Amino acid sequence: MSTRDPVDLDAQDPLAHYPRLFHAPRGVIYLDGNSLGPLPRHTPERLREVVTREWGEGLITSWNAAGWMAAPTRIGAKIAPLIGARAHEVLVADSVSVNLAKLIPAALALKPERNVVLTEAGNFPTDVYVIEGALRSSRTSYRLEIAPRTEILDRLTPEVGLLLLTHAHYQSAELYDMAAVTAAAHRMGTLVLWDLSHSTGAVEVDLSNARADFAVGCGYKYLNGGPGAPAFLYVAESHQSAVENPISGWMGHAAPFAFADHYAPAEGVQRFLSGSPAILAHAALEAGVDLYADVDMKTAATKARALGDLFLARVLADAPELERACPPPGALRGGHVALAHPEAESILSQSIAAGVIGDFRPPNMLRYGFSPLTLSYRDVAEAADRLTAVMARRRTQLARSTTL
Ligand SMILES: *Cc1c(COP(=O)(O)O)cnc(C)c1O
Questions:
Q1: Average pLDDT for residues 321-328, to the nearest whole number?
Q2: What tens digit of pLDDT does each residue of 48-66 get?
Q3: Residue 354 and residue 24: Cα distance in Å, rounded?
Q4: φ and ψ at 107, to 5 degrees?
Q5: N or C: which terminus of the chain carries fewer CB neighbours within 10 A?
């Protein structure tokens, strides 16, 4: 695209009609959809319907009549095209943390002769904590190894049973080449579990093409499913009949309503259900996911990156004291950007006061996210202008205080 004028970019944007489908508080430009997606306008009405009609009127019949029973697989099937999975490989359930707690032991049981789980230093904390918990709570010979990002491929040895990586880094927005890393792990006989929390809905993901083994992802970020929305998990079809869910609850049983004395796993990915699905939360997630129904992820990912590029280019040019801490404009990147500054926390408060909501990650990092459905190029250009105005004001104040 030759033009950099946000008005022209909006005019050419195939997703330009989406931002008005989201509620936007007056005066706010929301650049934190990578942490908690904003409210789709149709979600309150959808929730009211589930509460008053399905629950209030339908009562227990709604488990079947309103499709509550099928919600985890139905919504999973809707998420599948966003991550290059087949419909029957994705299930909505629990949180990312709990899904990791189910999939990690399931994966290790497929590699009983190995003894290392490998992950990246600086990975999202819950991923590492859950590996630690899984290894503590089972009588396993497995141990955790944490390697710097640049050494991950070198640390793949025949001892590594499972490699667990986050596809788009939550802080730096660096992206792994999923197909290349998965292939390198497979050459060593290692299984791979991808955390797609910061990817789904913002960048292109093709689990099938990468031949990924397992994945988890988040419902409350770019999928706009609401605070604490249910997460999802993916199990490649080739592993589905071999893996066991360590939380072998009745909803993952082959026949939950036979009330048998012993557990027998359901066919397919459904065995990774444990307890009853939280239907109100699933309804809000589905309302968010439905907005992606007609979205081509290549188009959405291109837009997310272009929004981030526009923001970075303007901010780095006009506020050079902010240091880029993510891949540069034009490079592959997750849906957000990161900027470092020793006074990041105070800059973020001023940014929020100026109506630009991003977030702060200690000790010195500002993050701004670019959800391709919820933002226009004009929003992002205006946000960049407001942030550079904040920085200009800080410079003036600093100059004044040092000349006094
Ligand atoms: C947001 C996020 C999670 C969230 O985990 P929950 O248990 O669903 O709260 C997990 N991993 C990564 C990489 C994330 O970005």
A1: 98
A2: 999 999 999 999 999 999 9
A3: 15
A4: -70, -45
A5: C
Long-range contacts made by residues 352-359, C-beta under 8 angstroms, separation at least 24?
354/386, 354/387, 354/389, 354/390, 355/27, 355/28, 355/29, 355/386, 356/29, 356/31, 356/383, 356/386, 356/387, 357/28, 357/29, 357/30, 357/31, 357/32, 358/31, 358/32, 359/32, 359/35
Catalytic site includes residue 129: no
Tokens read off for 361: 């990650």
Per-residue pLDDT of 294-322, as tens digits, reads 999 999 999 999 999 999 999 999 999 99
**195 part of the active site:** yes
Residue 354 tokens, joined: 């100026």
pLDDT class for 3, splitting at 50, 70, 90? low
Q: What is the DSSP letter of 233?
A: E
- 274 pLDDT more than 70: yes
Average pLDDT over residues 178-189: 98
Ligand 1, atom 5, lies closest to the CA of 96
Q: What is residue 192's predicted lDDT score, i.e. its pLDDT?
A: 98
The structure tokens listed for 49 are: 């319907």
Q: 360 in the Ramachandran plot: left (φ > 0), alpha (ψ -120 to 50) or beta? A: beta
Mutational test site, ligand 1, from 34, 36, 94, 96, max ligand atoms within 8 Å of CB: 96
Mean pLDDT of 233-257: 98
The answer to whether the beta carbons of residues 176 and 333 sit under 8 Å apart is no
- pLDDT, residue 244, reads 98
Across the beta sheet with 191-195, what order do the strands follow? Answer: 90-93, 231-235, 214-217, 191-195, 160-166, 116-120, 143-147
- For residue 126 and ligand 1, the question of a CB distance below 6 A is answered with yes
* pTM of the full structure: 0.97
263: phi then psi, degrees, rounded to nearest 5:
-75, 135
Residue 221 catalytic? yes
Q: Is the CB of 166 under 6 A from ligand 1?
A: yes
Q: CA-to-CA distance for 320 and 258, rounded, in angstroms? A: 66
- Judge whether 32 counts as a catalytic residue: no
